Amino acid sequence: MDGQVAIFVVLAVLSVLGAFVWLALSLRRMHIQIGEYNSRIELTKKEVERVFSEEFREELRNRGRLYFEKIINENAMFMQQDLHLTASQLNEYMRESLKKALNEEFKTYTKSIEDAKQVAIESITKTQQAMEEQRAVLQKEMQEQVDRQKKEMLTKLDKDMASVVNHYLIEALSEEVDMSSQSEFIFQHLEDQKAAILEDIRSVR
Fold it and tell me: Which range has the worst mean pLDDT, 61-65, 89-93, 166-170?
């Protein structure tokens, strides 16, 4: 009889330990997933900073200067062919043409850069919001799962503990005292202590 009780107790303890191990692995997996989401956000930020770096802007400026030089050369060749224009008219025309071309091109480049930057910022914001929502859902699901598992373990532990204690009390006292006069007091005492025991177990996380 004692051997069966011992086996029953060992199995109960092993089931509780197994549940705690499962909880630990689940929490670790959740932390890894959250870490991966944060890494993706940081990687996206770094990529945006790299794309819109000072080197990238300098490259755009260099391309703009080369394009403007091409415009200057084309305009100069065109104006040289016009023998009817005076030198002052030619200079004024070139100046106005170049000024207009430069202004238009700078506006185009500036707008392109700002549009691309705005698109990237909106994409990052949406990605962050989606990841935050997913992380909140994961945390809620894991917490509900942990609470449910904890409640099941406490219920099972409460049931198993009462069964084992009841068995040992009956076996120890059956031959020495009158159970009809003592059992009510003993079980009432255990019932009073049960709430404190369960509270101690719940406080251990």
Answer: 166-170
